Amino acid sequence: MLVRKDCRVIAVDGSRMAMFKNRGEAFAPVLELIEEHKNPSLRTSELGTDKPGRSFQSKSPSRGAHEQTDLQQQEEDRFVSEMAQRVEQLMSGTKEGIILVAAPRALGVIRKHLGPETSARLLAEIAKDFGPDAAEPLAKMLAAHEV
């Protein structure tokens, strides 16, 4: 994959976001870390302690339980949406292209929060759960990736 010089590469998962700038050539990207954010991992008991709800039928003795909310997933979705808003802020005054590498679920959350100008500058979206803290393996993956 061609990664333009000065292109931004953003790697996101539910707990980390890293933004890199390509300082190398198109066929041999060299990624320089610009900004990074981490979401502290909280235990589920720290996020909430409620039991799942119950429902009762008024005309019969049957009862039902509601599915328990995945509090960890809600926290990851909240973090990813905040990072999408941060990307909007950072990219508002620039003209560089953007390559987005994120887990498939995170990619869907990010798409909802990106504005039309930023979405128009997306050069590629790679649905891959890739640890955003390693620039060298990410650059190798981009160089070998085919669109």
Topology:
Blueprint: E1 8-12, E2 16-22, E3 31-38, H1 44-47, E4 54-56, E5 63-65, H2 71-91, E6 98-102, H3 104-113, H4 116-120, E7 122-127, H5 135-144
Parallel strand pairs: 1-6, 6-7
Antiparallel strand pairs: 1-2, 2-3, 4-5
For the biggest β-sheet, the strand order reads 3-2-1-6-7
Computed CA radius of gyration, to the nearest angstrom: 20 Å
CATH architecture: 2-Layer Sandwich
Rough shape?
A: elongated
Oligomer: single chain
* H/E series: EEEHEEHEHHEH
Number of domains: 1
Distance between the termini: 7 Å
Q: Give the helix tally.
A: 5
In CATH, what is the homologous superfamily?
Answer: eRF1 domain 2
| Helix coverage percent | 25-40%
CATH topology grouping = Nucleotidyltransferase, domain 5
Describe the main β-sheet briefly.
Answer: 5 strands, mixed
Proportion of residues in β-strands:
25-35%
**Would you report the number of β strands?**
7
CATH classification, class level: Alpha Beta
Please, what is the average pLDDT?
80
Low-confidence stretches: none
- Helix/strand-derived category reads alpha/beta
Structure description:
With 147 residues, the protein is α/β, with parallel strands linked by helices. It has one domain (8-39, 69-144): Nucleotidyltransferase, domain 5 (2-Layer Sandwich). Helices cover 34% and strands 25% of the residues. The protein is built from five helices and seven strands; from the N terminus they run E-E-E-H-E-E-H-E-H-H-E-H. The protein has helices spanning 44-47, 71-91, 104-113, 116-120, 135-144; strands at 8-12, 16-22, 31-38, 54-56, 63-65, 98-102, 122-127. The strands form two sheets. A five-stranded mixed β-sheet has the order 3-2-1-6-7. Strand 2 and strand 3 form a beta hairpin. Helix 2 (71-91) crosses helix 3. The radius of gyration is 20 Å and the shape is elongated. The mean pLDDT is 80.
